[in-house]
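Hey,
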Amino acid sequence: MEWSWKKQDRAEDFLKRFGKGKYGRVLKMAKKPAPDEYKRTLQITSLGTIAIGGLGFLIYYIWENGPPFFRGLLGI
């Protein structure tokens, strides 16, 4: 029981100090984005994710179905 109280106290102390140091300044400066700003960020990150996934798939496809030279690079 004593062990769990110590863990609880340590967790509470950490959370109390979290908002006062360098992280606290960042949290105070942070603001909720406007709907149009959020939508634009979501679009850009989605396009980036799709582009990176597509590039990875293209590389995989070429190595699996391409000329033997590309498969030889991987030792397949």
